[in-house]
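re: that chain from earlier
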Amino acid sequence: MATLGIPKNTIEIIQKYNFMFQKKFGQNFLIDTRVLERIIEASGVSKDDMVLEIGPGIGTMTQYLCENARKVIAVEIDKNLIPILSDTLSEYDNVRVINEDILKVDINKLVNEENDGKPIKVIANLPYYITTPIIMGLFESHVPIESITIMVQKEVADRMKVGPGTKDYGALSLAVQYYAEPKVVATAPANCFMPRPNVDSSVIKLTRHENVPVNVKDEKLMFKIIRASFNQRRKTLQNSICNSPDLHFSKAQIVEALKQMGLSETIRGEALTLEQFAEFTNYLC
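^ sequence. v structure.
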C-alpha cells in the first residue's frame, strides 16, 4: 500500500473516493513523513503496545502505527472515511476501526477487552474545538493510559505547559499538569497538512504521572473550583466561586481558607498554582 504521508498518494485516495472535507470535523490530513516519523519516535510505540488512535482520517498515521504496534484501535467519527480506511489499511491484520464519536466510546471497556486492562498509548490529531473535552475525558475517566501523544494547534500545546501569571494559563494547563508531564516533541507548520489550516500545530506528549503531584482530598471539587475561577477570569477568586452554580460555599468560608493560606482575599484564580488550588480545596473540604 502506498504511503499516505506523501502528498501525491493522499490526493489520489481522496480523488478515488470523491472525499469531501468536512469543516465540522476539523479535517486536516498530515502530508509530511518526517512529522509522522517524529510522532512514532516520540510516542515510543513498540510491539508490546496497544494504541488507541483518535481520528485516523484516511489512515495516514494508522499505517505507521500498524507497522510499530501490536494492536491499533482507530476511532473515526466520519462514516464517509470508513470505506477509505478499509482500503488503506487492507494489508494490516492488527487494526480495528470503530465508526463512533470518541466521547461516547467506553474506553475502559475497550482496554479490558483488547489489552487485558493494561495501560495503552493514545495518539491523535485533534481539531481545536474538541481537544479539551477529549483530553479531560481520557484523564477523568481514569482510563489506564501510559501516554497521550497529540497533534494540536500550537497555542493549545502552549496552554498545556504554562504556569500561573501568563495569559495562556487556565483550567486546561492545570488539568494536564495534574495528570501528566507535558512536553512538546515536534512542530508542524500549516504546510504539513491538506487542506492547509490557518495555524501551525505542535505535537505534545503527555506522560501520565505514576502518582499525582499534589495531595487533594476531593479531586472533583478541586476541578469545579478551578473551572469556576477561570470562567470569570477578571473576577476575584471568591467572587468566581460565589457566582458558580456548581459550588456552595459562603464568602466567609472562602475568605477564611484564603487567610489560612496567607493569601489576599482579592486574589484571582489565575495567580494560584496547582499546589495552592489543592490546598485551598482541602481547607474548604
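Residues 7-208 form a domain with the Rossmann fold fold (CATH 3.40.50.150).
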